[in-house]
Amino acid sequence: MHPIMLALTPRYITLTLAVLLTLVCAAVLLAGGHGVAWVGLVVGGGLSALGFRDLFNTRHAILRSYPISAHLRFLMESIRPEMRQYFFEDEKTGAPFSRDKRALIYQRSKMQLDKRPFGTQYDVYGDGFEWLHHSIAARAPDRTPFRLTIGGADCTQPYDASVFNISAMSFGSMSANAIVALNTGAKRGNFAHDTGEGGYSQHHAIAGGDIIWEIGSGYFGARNADGSFSAERFAATASASQIKMVELKLSQGAKPGHGGVLPGAKVSAEIAATRGVPMGQDCISPSWHTAFSTPVEMMHFIAQMRRLSGGKPAGFKLCVGHPWEFLAICKAMLATGITPDFIVVDGKEGGTGAAPLEFMDHLGMPLREGLSFVHNALIGIGLRDKVKIGASGKIATGFDIARAFALGADWCNSARGFMFSLGCIQSLSCHTDRCPTGVATQDPTRARALVVPDKATRVFQYHEATLEALAELVAAAGLEHPSQLRADHIERRVSQHQTRSFADLYPRLATGALLRGTEDPRFARAWELADAQSFAPRRELVD
User: Fold this and answer.
1) Coil, helix or strand for 490?
2) Rounded distance, CA 170 to CA 182, Å?
3) CA distance 470 to 452
4) How deeply is 445 buried, as exposed, middle or buried, from its count of CB atoms within 10 A (0-12, 13-18, 19+)?
5) How far apart are CA 178 and CA 404, in angstroms?
6) What is the distance, to the nearest Å, from the Cα of residue 288 to the centroid of all Cα atoms in its chain?
7) CB distance 314 to 305 below 8 Å
């Protein structure tokens, strides 16, 4: 953009006016003008100096994007009432994310004091309040980072992963600076960074942090000219040593059954080249895969992904929809003898850069129900010990991770948490390409607000502090590792006078129960309807 046009944009207009005031007052004084011009010179000069300092500061993205005027935001923050809404109330009323939870992430990413006075802000007698049982025989927290090994018998390059990683966020939805900062933080903290379905770009490769390469229905980075899957291109990219796992995306929480959406305003020349799509046009992935059409074919495709990647862990991600479809996949595992190395369960509360309101609010299974369903289905077919489960969907704190582990997760992914560590203020403008902090934009003048070294440090620090909090929770429960957490460790208030443990709310199937036949209403009918040869329910039982 031309410098003059840039100076006249609303974001820089305050600085532009301050500079003009300074120049005009200086000219008046040089011409022998009135002494009032001295006041204008001092005010304009001071504001101009402040504005230029804001332009080149490295810690506050808002100030870099909105010099001078952004100080009003910080002023309002400093004088606003200190009362906060309860986490639970925020979630009940539909707020995108608790303000207190965002504040906690900001503090941890900046290594600021994250403690609170006066006790809980929750209504502990309100419906939905949850807590972790502690132990009289609490332990000292284990300061060794919690990790797990992902990779089954057919995997020749298993991955030693952190239990907390960066969830799928595509280059395109996210700016190049955001991608580099995330991966730099992941490299420093030795945890993984999921590419999202937008593909593995040069910005992912710069820092060398561990990568989980996600392949969606658009097959970006591994597609032929007609949009079909290219085994050759996939193999060429998957061989990169930085890529540790390959993940097939079936659906995502915020818009299951819809396909990825990248508005045309964000499809820059670089994005178009990376994805192999036209510049400036909406990039919409199909809501279905063309590389397979049945559960059995899907298992063979995952085996192909594992083979083409050189034996790296291969798995899939989904938001659970029709129960019989996931059980059909389970039957396909049994029929083919092929098991994925991992499954990532994405809750419908997962975030996105763009999706229809109806999809975000009313489609897909929430994380807790979906995670419990997948965990128990694998137990029911006797394959739980062969498949690792990841969980994603509004996970941001140590308790969020502990709760997911109690329901069957082996590790957790977070998107919003790491976005907040980058400086996201949840302006809800991701789909407009007008992100004020440079996180979710392809506008280079906005992306410059995000300073990679500073934000990469915050990504690293947020991950480290969150795992420290998890370690303290696990130790307080008298355990050594989050993998020891079980459903009966978590309690939930279901009314003002009654509580239930997660073991009661999400009962566990017995090993092999689906193979023997079960009357559990969560599974019995869906298991009958499931067909390894089709994602559709068995017609003779439906008719």
Assistant:
1) strand
2) 11
3) 27
4) middle
5) 27
6) 22
7) yes
Tens-place pLDDT, residues 396-441: 999 999 999 999 999 999 999 999 999 988 888 888 888 889 999 9
What's the CA gap between 133 and 400, in Å, rounded?
14
The string of DSSP codes covering 253-304 is TTSTTT--EE-GGG--HHHHHHHT--TTS-EE--SS-SS-SSHHHHHHHHHH
Contacts 24+ apart (CB under 8 A), 357-362: 359/254, 359/255, 359/256, 359/257, 359/258, 360/254, 360/255
Task: Please report the pLDDT score of residue 131 as a whole number.
Answer: 96
HEC sequence for 402-453:
HHHHHCCCCEEEECHHHHHHHCCCCCCCHHHCCCCCCCCCCCHHHHCCCCHH
Distances in Å between the Cα of 526 and the Cα atoms of 28, 251, 365 are 82, 20, 15
pLDDT for 6: 56
- Look at strands 314-318 and 411-414 and give their pairing: unpaired
- Judged by DSSP in three states, 346 sits in strand
User: How, if at all, do strands 342-346 and 147-150 pair?
Assistant: unpaired
Q: Who contacts 321 (Cβ-Cβ below 8 Å, separation ≥6)?
A: 251, 256, 257, 364, 365
Give dist(CA 379, CA 44) in Å, integer.
69
Query: Using an 8 Å Cβ cutoff, are 222 and 230 in contact?
Result: yes
Residue with tokens 């390469």: 213
State CA 377 to chain mean position distance: 25
| Cβ(197)–Cβ(254) below 8 Å | no
Q: How many other C-beta atoms lie within 10 A of the C-beta of residue 435?
A: 30
Residue numbers in the chain where pLDDT is lower than 50: 2, 81-95
- Please give the CATH architecture assigned to the domain spanning 156-527: Alpha-Beta Barrel (3.20)
**By the 8 A CB rule, do 397 and 463 touch?**
no
What are the pLDDT digits (tens) for 469-510? 999 999 999 999 999 999 999 999 999 899 999 999 999 999
